[in-house]
Predict the 3D structure of the following.
Amino acid sequence: MEKQLSLPRLREEMTSGMLCAWLKEEGEPVEAGEPLYEIETDKVVNQIEATESGVLKKQLREEGDEIAPGEPVAVLETE
Amino acid sequence: MIYMDSRSTDPYYNLAFEEYLFRSFPGEDLFLLWRNSPCMVVGSYQNICRETRPARLRRLGIPTLRRISGGGAVYHDLGNVNYSFITRQEGGTDYDRSLAPILAALNAIGVPARKRRTCDIAIGEEKISGSAQRAAGGRLLHHGTLLFDADLTALEEISVRGKGEHVQTKGTQSAICAVTNIRQHLEEDATVEDFCRQLLDNMVPDPSDRLELTAAQEAEVRRLAEEKYRSWEWTWGRTPAFTCKRSGTFAGKSIFIAYQAKKGIVSDARIESHAINGPLAASLLNGARLDPEGFAAICRELAGDQEEELLELLL
């Protein structure tokens, strides 16, 4: 099953964050809890972990992109 | 709260020390105080070419390092005191929780400091401290600088004021602020060592809570310093993709320089100048790593004695 992963709201006042690193490549298996990508907002680099296990099917955004909370970032193929 | 003493002023070691503690001590709340010998430290996702002056830093012998937190480029020397809090992450990111204890300690030792903007500390209208964070695996790293007696002339000389517009890039931009040294604002003069001691006595009063790493842990830190913080891949390879385009004067003649760099590797290089062999420049630059020493060698080949002048334009 394909599942879209969206950027969580990391703080109340957050309007957007910058995608600063992908930590998994497309096609790589991901365990729940494993770090998937990094977002910088207000001088905080937040490592975002996968909420479930699967395979990273698609990176929807690239490094340097500004992303708003709730916007899709990745597609995960789950069992 | 446990204080960990790095006992080093080597910036590569100290950045590795902090990351090692952030990753390896999940159960403890830690406080660190550390100082670096002169260096430039950029944020996790910054373009070194836009945010620093690589040619000038090379000439001054000041190394550039990349840290794991966000935010902008910072100049460090032994007059700048760094503090870190490593704690459990609770709720969303929040600077006030980390700034409150350091502000209280500063005020207790007679520094008339107050919070300014989201994560700065100032005396009057001048900044004495900036901070940044990293959140991962349920842990929060908050660290900040404290300008106590830093060389503000050096800081001014290497600041990027008026530089960087020729670099088109994504990535985090640094803020340039008016700064001051804490030492100038003390009623009773103190050395940077006195200042650190007073801060520590305030933050971690019980000497039995002050620890050092074991020899085996220290070896791990040294390994991380070598493999990550001294590596080209981490420091330069992580520079966001960019395009550099600039016109200027070289050897009294006009010059136009253009190139791109992705993952730190140069492509589409072009130099147009009567004083430079253009095809040779393109062949030397294309495929080269963004790297002050490597670029200096290329400039030597292209410009001989005028290497420095060309390097200032190129990097």
Summary: Chain B has two domains: 2-231, 242-314. DSSP finds eleven helices and 15 strands in chain B. The mean pLDDT of chain B is 95.
